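Continuing the batch. This is chain 6 of the set; chains 1 through 5 are on the previous pages. Same settings as before, nothing changed between runs. Recording input and output for traceability.
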Amino acid sequence: MHLGLAGVRWIPAGQPPHRGRPQVTAAQRLAMVLRSTAENPLFSVDPVEVEASAPSFTVHTLERLRAELGEQRSLVLLVGADAFAGLAAWHRWRDLFALAHLAVAHRPGFPIAGSSLPAELAEEFQHRRSDDPAVLRQAPAGRITSFAMTQLAISATQVRKLLANGLSVRYLLSDSVIEYIHCHQLYRNQ
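Output for chain 6:
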């Protein structure tokens, strides 16, 4: 992996605070994440947010992980460029930098431009940015790096729409997730 991470921990949100209630339960989303990551030994799944009774705020998740990992271990939050562009609207967003590094995935040929970010985020980006992902191993938190990631033309909205209309999602999801969705009759038109 370009970032040199030891592994990736997937953490499904139990109660996403910035969107409407998901069509499926948190437990069902967790089951699908477990199925989709099962064959990669570098992936692990953290169920704590799904089991929590409070909304899932990233800063709270990172506080929990920081307490678990200790103050000196490097922690990296992976986000997409679209999520990063809206970071200034997140709950206690400035606190994220004391808890973790941020690695921002962008489309090849379209790097993150500070000029396209809200002013307060652009300032943080300029101050914390590094083009060398090796900096992520040199400190426990506080830096921002970006990396190109080839995007696939797949969106969760598109997948849900296909499923609701009884159309195939083969090759868009793993076979085990498709099997789970069909077995539990998820995402169907009511």
